[in-house]
Design goal:
Blueprint (H helix, E strand, L loop, with lengths): L1 E5 L3 E6 L2 E6 L16 H15 L9 E7 L2 E8 L5 H11 L6 E8 L4 H15 L15 E6 L2 E8 L2 H12 L6 E8 L2
């Protein structure tokens, strides 16, 4: 199996007769615009899925949508807050309507409602946004950095420009009261 890094976000895997096009992190507006795969239909499906997920009205910085295209099957994964639970069904709906898609597997997890998690989300956002210019990662319509909170455990996902920004985000998230754990899954864009 061979891996190709595509525009910092997408990884194309090809094996045997079926290739696989996979997002490797949250769906972002600025990264992954060029998608290639051994099968041009899979590449087109992946591009269309990415585009449609970006257009979802309730997709926020506190949600993480990812997908994989295997043949004509789209596998959705990631997390959405209970406030935006409709995003799970909306994501499945838009993926099903894409030409060439035969099947959609929806593995998106709806995070349980929690006022403590909501507070941690807000405070983590403010802590990171107020740290050394990191607010720029939240400016785009589809933010480059996402904050996922599940049972007061914070996971940072997305893309940043440098290892320093990645480390500053971790430090900022760790200063938030009530956070039990911070996992930094941010990737440095090349």
């Amino acid at each position: 199996m061979r891996k190709l890094l595509i525009a910092g976000l997408f990884v194309a895997l090809s094996a045997g007769a079926f290739g696989q096009v996979s997002s490797n992190g949250p769906v972002n507006a600025d990264y992954g615009k060029k998608i290639t795969a051994s099968d041009p239909v899979e590449a087109r499906i992946a591009k269309d899925v990415r585009h449609q997920l970006l257009l979802l009205p309730w997709y926020s910085m506190f949600d993480d949508l990812e997908f994989t295209v295997e043949g004509r099957t789209v596998i959705l994964s990631g997390y959405v807050t209970s406030l935006h639970a409709v995003t799970k069904s909306d994501a499945e709906g838009v993926a099903k309507r894409i030409e060439g898609v035969d099947k959609v597997v929806n593995n998106i997890k709806v995070l349980p409602p929690s006022s403590l998690d909501d507070q941690v989300r807000r405070e983590t956002y403010y802590a990171i946004a107020e740290t050394g210019g990191l607010s720029r990662y939240f400016w785009p319509t589809a933010p480059d950095m996402r904050i996922i909170v599940d049972n007061q455990r914070v996971t940072l996902v997305g893309l940043v420009n440098s290892e320093g920004d990645k480390n500053m985000a971790t430090i900022a998230a760790n200063t938030v009261p009530g956070v039990f754990q911070v996992t930094n899954d941010l990737r440095v864009a090349k």
